[in-house]
Design brief:
alpha+beta; five-stranded antiparallel sheet
Length: 275
């Protein structure tokens, strides 16, 4: 395999713009950055190939009244990839990765209800052969993450460019948001492709474009739906990812979490309630 080519300034600005608003039109990016629409479209297509760029829809579980968990599984190396693959196919997993040389599987999950949570954590995983230990932690507070990612910290855009490309601020509802079947159908399509067109969303959900547009705007304005930019980090000089587990005195959690959240290449989430 060849050495990944570094990204230039326009590439980085495009990635940053998509992190701010995953559905921002290419024409708007072009206008703000002072380049042509076709240039932005070509760069986007090239990044999809060179760094596996994807824009995917995500949901903010706390606004849905759901719990988020980090599950750490230690297992024998011969089953790690199969286990990770099985977890990745579950509808309630948000992230699955291999760590520690292939002897640990890290999984972020959002069980829909307590029964689903207990069935996975206390029954299925405990009975799975060659899993040597299971640790589960409920996320109580996120200092940095969700709609904010590494690209926000890289600051490729100038302040005026960033201000021009930021979407309207969200207005979270006071009570948990309830999703109906039509919302779920829409989110299913957006989880595959956050930039799916209105016609693609119409075809994927069976709803009219006007209904899709209204639902999309409602989910975004409430903060339930946001967009994540996924890409290979090596061309940005980030060739190694490390997971840090810190045991911190309760009185210092806020200060430590806040400091880690400000670090350039870190996301900080205090994990608690070990099951």
């Amino acid at each position: 395999m060849g050495v990944p080519q570094p990204l230039d300034t326009l590439d980085l600005k495009l990635l940053h713009a998509l992190q701010l608003d995953g559905r921002v039109p290419f024409s708007r990016i072009a206008e703000v950055l002072g380049v042509s629409d076709p240039t932005v479209a070509r760069r986007f297509r090239r990044l999809r190939t060179s760094v596996n760029l994807r824009v995917v829809g995500m949901t903010e579980e706390s606004l849905l009244g759901q719990e988020s968990w980090i599950v750490r599984l230690r297992c024998t190396p011969d089953v790690a990839e199969r286990l990770a693959g099985a977890l990745a196919r579950r509808p309630d997993t948000k992230y699955v990765g291999l760590t520690s040389g292939g002897t640990e599987v890290m999984c972020a999950m959002m069980p829909r209800n307590r029964r689903d949570r207990d069935e996975l954590l206390f029954e299925r995983l405990q009975r799975t052969p060659r899993i040597t230990s299971v640790d589960a932690y409920r996320i109580l507070h996120t200092f940095y993450g969700g709609p904010l990612g590494r690209l926000n910290k890289n600051r490729a855009l100038e302040p005026d460019e960033e201000a021009a490309l930021c979407p309207p601020p969200v207005e979270p509802a006071a009570a948990p948001v309830t999703l109906d079947e039509a919302d779920e159908a829409l989110l299913t399509v957006l989880r595959r492709d956050g930039r799916a067109t209105l016609s693609e969303l119409r075809n994927g959900t069976g709803q009219s474009e006007s209904v899709v547009k209204r639902r999309l705007e409602r989910l975004r304005s409430s903060g339930v739906l946001y967009f994540d930019v996924q890409y290979d980090t090596a061309p940005l000089g980030q060739t190694v990812d490390a997971m840090l587990w810190l045991t911190v005195a309760p009185s210092a959690l806020d200060a430590v979490g806040g400091a880690l959240g400000q670090a350039t290449h870190l996301r900080a989430e205090p994990l608690s309630i070990r099951r």
